[in-house]
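Retro notes, structure queue

What went well: the backlog is down to a handful. What didn't: a couple of records were mislabeled last round, so from now on we paste the full input next to the output in the thread. Example, using Germin-like protein from Brassica oleracea var. oleracea:
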Amino acid sequence: MVTYLHHNSLAITTFIYRVSVLFALCITLFTNPALSGYNNPLQDFCVADLQATPSNTGYPCKSQVTSEDFFYSGLSTPLNTSNPKGVAANRANLMTFPGLNTMGISMYNVAVAAGVANPPHSHPGVTEAGVVVEGLVLIGFLTNNYTLYSKVAGPGDMFVIPPGLIHYEMNVGKTEARLLTVVASEWPSEVLVPHTLFLAKPAIPDFVLKKIFKTDGKTINMLRTKLAN
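Corresponding output:
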């Protein structure tokens, strides 16, 4: 009984700690204009009407709003990393949670299989931050002067990626890793570096890629094939 109570107390303490870290993360993004894309609209909120036709400025506001528009349970859906990429994510953004419209924030529950890397990518103009919930994850980002900042993060460790910088995550543990991340935009764009270079349509000419990477056409075609699958 004593052992059970000890483990139960430890689990509760760990859970509270993780939630506290994530809460601090959200508060930071919301209250710091340098990190958030929040544009201080004149109205208190604008729940997006996804049934309407969007304009150049986005979706119009719903005319009838209820409490349900400000709550979302989709992040808790079980994740399955048994796919070719080895990565799975639940997304809370404008298109899945319309209540985030104009709020300048989105959240993601991400699972990464052991030994798998999330390709180098960026979110133009916006900050990303998060916390590792389970596993060991090597997280790194590159600055514009080609400096790499990286570290292996474990459960409870928080990280931040400065606006628009190329970054990656790799599960370096022996079990599945999970992260909770927040991006300072309700509908952030994502630029996957290798896919942008090798899967662009129309394609970047082979002679350009061969010159840039100082390699041959066979290697370029091999990379295109692997990235396409």
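Agreed that this is the format going forward. Reviewer comment attached to the example: Residues 105 and 184 are 5 Å apart (CA to CA).
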